[in-house]
Amino acid sequence: MNINLPNFNMKNLVKEAGSTISRVVQLTEEKLGTTERTEYDIHFQNLAERADVTKTWTEKIVRDTESVLIPNPQNRVEDYIFEKIEKSKPKRLSNLEHLALDMIEAGGDFGQDMPYGQALIKVGQAEQKLGQCEHDFIATSGICFTQPLRKFLDGEMKTISKERGILETKRLDLDACKNRVKKARSMLGQQAKDGISPEAALEQAERDLRVAQAEFDRQSEITKLLLDGISTSQASHLRHLHAFIQTQVRYYKQCSDVMDQLQRDLAKMQPAKPRLRINSEDVDVGPPSIVSDVISNSLALALDSDNDTDNDYDEAGYTSIDIGQAKALTQSLLKDFEIEFDTSAISTV
User: Fold this and answer.
1) pLDDT in tens, 239-281
2) For a FRET experiment, which of 138, 219, 239, 279 has its CA 20 to 30 Å from that of 164?
3) Do 96 and 130 form a contact (C-beta atoms < 8 A)?
4) How far apart are CA 177 and CA 171, in angstroms?
5) What is the rounded CA–CA span in Å between residue 252 and residue 130?
6) Verdict on whether the full-model pTM lies above 0.70
7) Are 276 and 291 in contact (CB under 8 A)?
8) Contact indicator for 138, 130 with CB cutoff of 8 Å
9) Which of 181, 151, 239 is nearest to 35 (CA)?
């Protein structure tokens, strides 16, 4: 059986395997502290640290924002899968819309001509409007805020992470070459080993070192340029944040307008009632004719009762009137209309 592998090169495979082993040995010695390593300059370290912080907090902000927009984690996972396979997200009713449908249906069953039924339908319609406002807010917030940030994480940050990994590989190769040069220099003056003189081994090690140093410097510059670009990305994120806040302001204003209109509509549906001011508070008391008649009759009864007896005048010429019957009728009035009022203060006039 002949297996045709046109791109298979045993020499390159052996070379790559040797490089991998050399990196593993170098990394192990660094962990054990038995060898030196090339340190990145302070500027590069600051850029790398800022990149790590940016990645960590951007991921948290995206997750938290999506949790606010779509509280149900199962729905978030489902939307993410549909987004990855480039299909439209499933349409689902929000909790507000479920509440709206139940209120409207209940109002129809209770009777659209009944006050409670009318109110339920009116509130249900308002909840539907709130649900639509919520859908618009979620969609707009995704477009202007979460999607750009996620695109940054999936694009620019992944590229930076990839290039940093390549740079770390180049550093390990560079340090391995440095160690081989040191070892070759220490063998100068000794006999040839495996047919290779110490001078030839040193020359080869120095040549490999120069190549490794050039590759490391080139990769370092590429990575620095990408890390410097994070400042530009953060300026873009600031614009997306402003857009998100504008979307929130518009959403809450729409909700406030809907609720204000609902409040006005419910107030119009309420029958007008006269109000009695008791202890600086307005209280519904029922039809004005009843209140007026009962109070007038109570006071008239008290005055007529006192006219049948001898009036008791005080030194200033005022007369005291016993209005016990008026108190009893007043208490009955307050009880009938469920008004709590202390009548113990009514004793004399």
Assistant:
1) 999 999 999 999 999 999 999 999 999 999 876 555 555 555 5
2) 239
3) yes
4) 10
5) 10
6) no
7) yes
8) no
9) 181
